[in-house]
Each structure stands twice: as structure tokens, then as C-alpha cells.
Design a protein that fits this description.
Layout: E1 24-26, E2 29-31, E3 40-41, E4 44-45, H1 53-57, H2 76-79, E5 81-88, E6 91-98, H3 105-118, E7 122-126, E8 129-133, H4 136-147
Parallel strand pairs: 6-7
Antiparallel strand pairs: 1-2, 3-4, 5-6, 7-8
Length: about 150
Amino acid sequence: MIALQPARRQCGTCTACCDGWVAGNIRGHEMKPGQPCHFRGEGCCTIYAQRPLEPCRNFVCGWLMPDSPFPEEFRPDRLGVMAVPTRWRARPAFILCSAGRDPDERLLEWMREFSSRTGAPFFYEQRGERFGFGPPEFQQEMLHKVENGERLW
């Protein structure tokens, strides 16, 4: 019997990472919240084959990453939130970035259960206020940052 590997996910028509939800500079053109990538076409990247290594080629959202823990319905353009992989103390962590909306309670409950099960903390923003969820040592570190006026991420 041959074991079949699951098909790798593909962006398809999802352009959430290019739609102006995160910051970057692509070939001298600034991209930031509210300002999409200069090279974003209708449902595609107009320079895809020639896109730069940073920030484009090296960026992989949590939904797209190999062995993604996120279900199919978490594709950023469908969910309205993009899970951006990051690290905390050499552990996997995620930042939930708006891709049209703040994370709702249903998504946060899923993420809390995931974090509790895996130990992977996550950050998120609601109504302009930043939060973090994770193991006790993560919470202590985030509290210390807040007390010192530092940004959580």
C-alpha cells in the first residue's frame, strides 16, 4: 500500500498578505495597514515570478505553512484574520492579524484550546488593544512588558 501525502495548500486567490494588513516594502513601494501592495492585482500578484525574497517569498501564513494546524476554513481571505507564524522563546507562536476584522470569540476560543494543548502562545488585537494568551511564563513576560510600557509584539 502506498501512503499518499496530503496536497500542500496553495494561496489560490487569497491575497490577504498583500492587501495592506501587514507592513512591508516591496521594490521601494511601502505596504502597510490600509495601503495594499503596489503590485497586487485582481486576486493575484502582478510580479509573482519576480517577487522579492523579503518580504514576499519568505512569508508563509499559518494557514499555508507545511503541516499547518489550522483548519481549511482558516484561509485568511475567508476568515478575515491571518495567523502569522512567529517565535517566543524558540517556541512556535502566532500573531492573529486582522485581514478585514478583529478575531471574534469563536476564533479566540479555538486558539485558546490550541494554545493550551500545544503550548504555542498567540497574540491578537481587538478594537486597537493588544493581548496575548499562552502558558504562565508567557503571561508573566507579557505582564512585565505591559508594566514597562513595551509593545507585546
